[in-house]
Every structure is written in C-alpha cells, then in structure tokens.
What we know:
Layout: E1 13-16, E2 19-22, H1 30-44, H2 62-71, E3 80-86, E4 91-93, E5 95-96, E6 99-100, H3 104-116, E7 122-124, E8 141-146, E9 149-150, E10 158-160, H4 161-171, E11 185-187, E12 192-194
Parallel strand pairs: 3-8, 4-7
Antiparallel strand pairs: 1-2, 2-10, 5-6, 9-10, 11-12
Helix pairs in contact: 1-4
Amino acid sequence: HLDTVGGDKPITAIEENGLIKSDGKSILGADDKAGVVILLYMIENEIPGTYYFFIGEESGMAGSKGILRIKRDWFNKFKRCISFDRRGYGSIISRQMGRKCCSDDFVNSLSEQFKINGMNYKNDPGGIYTDSAAFIGIIPECTNLSVGYFNEHSTNEHQNITYLEELCETCLKIEWENLPTIGLIFNKYTDDNHI
C-alpha cells in the first residue's frame, strides 16, 4: 500500500549496520514502503503477475475495499493474492482478522520455495490485516509476507535493508505460478473459512 502512518512529513533517514530508521522525530514508513520496493523490483524484472498498489490501507483498507465495490467479479479469476506488508522475518500469514486466509498446502509449498532459495519462511496464524484480507472469500489463497520492518507506526520504526534486498532477490526465484490453489470454502452462516 502506498500510504503510511507518518503521512507526508519530511523524514531524515539514518542507516546504521544494515538498518534504516528515522532520526526519531518522524515515522519512517517502511510499512509499507518495503512492500512497494519488492513489487517494483518484481515488475522491473518482469515477474508475471497482476500488481496493485492500494491507497488507504492504514485507514481501514479504503483502496482494496473500494475497488471491490466497483469490480468485485473481476477478481474471481485470480488464484492467489500476496501482500508484502508484515513486520519481522519469515512469516507467511495464514489467518487475518481471525479468519483463515490460505490453505495449509499453499503455506507449506511457499515455505518450501523460500527454503530452496535460502530463506526461512513459515506459517504464522497471527495476522491482523492488510489489503489481502479484503479478498478473503473471493480469491482462494490470500496471504501477507514479512518484509523485515519493526516497530511500525512509531518513531522507532526501522527496516532491515539487508533482509529486504535478500527478499527482493528471492522473490525473483519463487515459482509463484506453481503454488497450489486449494482454496477456501466460505461459510456465510458462521463467518468461518474451512479447507
């Protein structure tokens, strides 16, 4: 997503030991500038996919929810929705907003793809939300991946730039189109998702 909690306040960025942070007077906005960097890098390297850069994620997913009001049916053709907007390292989010968002087969396959390419990513059922959550029940496999930022939404936010660079390179090697699509069945009566 293109918006940040810090808004358009000027940022004085400081790099120390592979970390980028602000001078403590503003919010860095690695949430989600890091995700934007990854997508732009994938586009530049011609990785096939449909890429969306949403606005208003920090104010309740306004962009992703807004596009669904206009062209919901158009998204039915997609098998996977992957956001790059999770704090920390190595998370493949399998639950967002308390709801299952992707199958175990999908998580395990993606985890194996990362492992083959030298990065450790594993199942994390502790997701809160990001734009991919808006597509649960529409796109069969939705997730959010860690990008190496910490202390988001605060003046202590920092980004591990070394990790981000490694992730950018690894994303070029993942066989995204070969990931399984098991899908979720949405139960409108219980608001639960089941495999």
